[in-house]
Amino acid sequence: MLGSDLVETLSKAWGNNAIVPTDFKELDITNLRKVDEFVGRYSFSGIINAAAYTDVDKAETEREKAYRLNMVGPQNLTIVASKLQIPVIHFSTDYVFDGLAHRPLTEEDVPCPPKPNYYGETKLLGEMEVLKNPNNLVLRLQWLYGKQSDRFSVLREKKIFTPFEDQWGAPTWTRDVSRTVVELIESDAKGLFHFSYDDFTNWFEVFSFVKAELNLTTELTPKKSSDVHLPARRPTYGVMSNKKLLTQLGKKSMGSWKTALKEFLSQI
Asked: What are phi and psi of 138, to 5 degrees?
């Protein structure tokens, strides 16, 4: 989902020949030798890693797969890139936090994934590997949606839908993330950043907004995290501060999640 928007956005920004997109069929990032061989065919100026194991609940049982994709893969990319003295741009998640702070989380906050949440644990290990090289860049994201997985069309098919009312954050459009990646690269950004809009919400309010925008009759019934027993715990308050990102990009605002989602819904 994120990778496809990155390819489109980066190609528009720098030209089709500026990037070499690949996927797991062509390159297994969990195999160091294959990463080394693949990267060695080109004269790259950097590597962007949009690969991840993202099934939060299945990660509790598919631990080896989650670990290899979320930790070993980024580690291998960092090893090869460091040898060539080129940066890695990597994506992490608000799930590295337990969500108990109830204030916007900054890059200075010490991560502590909720337990159990092996997905969050592996993503934290992965970002730590990438950040061992100070020239690399890690961008934490949350609640992604995009053309490949819009999250919201499900409302058209449901008579009753029960989104969470106690999980706080903001839906994030992969197109906006991709555009920000271009700006970060062009501003020579390094280190750890949080991507977020200026405002935040909960899932019930998100789907209420979608229902109104799409003029649907779906009945929305809010639920709490304690109402369901999922294999992995989610952070209830994953709101992230964008102050460091704004400073890096020389901006005053990242806009509203509502503006982005309204435009996205008009396209689907």
From this structure: -120, 130
Query: Which H or E element spans position 205?
Result: helix 203-214
Correct CATH for 2-150+171-198+240-255 of 3.20.20.140, 1.10.760.10, 3.40.50.720, 3.90.1150.10: 3.40.50.720
Calpha distance 175→260 (Å, rounded): 9
119 is catalytic: yes
> Two tokens at 141?
């994201």
Encoded amino acid at 124, one letter: L
CA distance linking residue 181 with residue 190, whole number of Å? 12
Q: What is the mean pLDDT of residues 61-69?
A: 98
Angle of the 73-84 helix axis to the 32-40 helix axis, nearest 10: 40
Choosing from 95, 119, 197, 237, which is the catalytic residue? Answer: 119
pTM for this one?
0.97
CA distance readout (Å), 180 to 42, 48, 85, 152: 25, 13, 23, 23
